[in-house]
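User: My collaborator sent over this chain with a note saying "see what the structure looks like." That's all I know about it. Can you take a look?
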Amino acid sequence: MLDEKTINIVQSTAPVLKEHSKEIGKRFYELLFEKAPDLLNIFNQTNQKRGLQQEALGYAVYAAGEYITNLDTLKPVIERISQKHRAIGIKPEQYPVVGETLLQAVKDVLGDTATDEIIEAWGKAYGYISDAFINLEKKLYEKTEQQPGGWEGYRAFYVDKKVKESEEVTSFYLKPKDGKAIASYKAGQYLTIKAEIPGEKYTHIRHYSLSEAPGKDYYRISVKREDEHGDSPDGIVSNYLHHHIQSSDALQFSAPAGDFVLNNDHLPIVLISGGIGITPLLSMLNTIVEEKAPNQVTFIHATRNSKTHAFKEHVKQLENDYENVKSFICYDSPTEEDKKAKNYDKEGYIDLDSLQSILAKKEANFYLCGSVPFMEAIIKALNEWEVPKEHIHYEVFRPVAILGEE
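Assistant: Without extra context I'll predict from the sequence alone. Here is the result:
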């Protein structure tokens, strides 16, 4: 346990670190990649360029300091980060260099304000928090490797088939090259790919949600091709998968991971997705119908139009086949053909009025996935409707973030 003096110093200086969190995050990664360039094989370089990784680190450091005496408050964040660490293969021996670099970044940014006493206190706090991560991750590694069909590290899978789901989304059906059993997973979890792309200096690691119900002899991921848009460059891995990977090609994946999972109790279930956020929620929907769960399920999907709408016919078929499934489609930019066909329910965006018109009552478990602005809007609407926080679950396709909290 930490001594009282250390706790007081960390908690009193946490707001200062928050104020300078972006600069600390930026300096941290500059130093880290100088000290340990091999870590460039692990970190998402696109997120680095966009500043997302730095922002996530700054938040995590501040939050850890603020809640140092009650890490249970940060349990969702710790579990989410630990799942990702297990998926990409972070080991205990990598923590010390990260700690040293973090303290150096704080000192570089804060200058004389970061006294030896402050740096020493944060060093103790980092050791305390990293021990919590290491212990949790050790259990995750053991559980993953010991489960039926489980494995350590990365395993070779071949592409059994590719299926185009929309103008932007393609599904990849994956089977193990060794022909042995594969680990099961929970609806909502993801696979992690280690892509070695010709011409790229470093390997690229990405998480892709499993888009099918568990229990098959294959895994399915459905990947959106990320084209250059604004300050976002082309997606290196998504374009590689779409344009260069063909049937029978081999790819490396770690075992399924993730804490965004279906918790099927007696309440109705509302699945709300935006764009490619449909993938983990589709896994949940398929699981519910395959397991013949009695819950009423409402599947709400928002996308630009029918050209970008993946799995539309599949969801419509499930709605026709199962009395407890209802779907709702929202297009923000419907085509003229869409308007003529009237193949969607609402033009525009999902808001509180939409939700209240779709759902008979708010007593339900809500599962959300999509862009950060999309989910922030949905969470804001659910908060206005006074839906309890424990009934709101979400997945974010970016470095760890906690939405709806300031």
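A starting point for your reply to your collaborator: The chain is about 40% helix and 20% strand.
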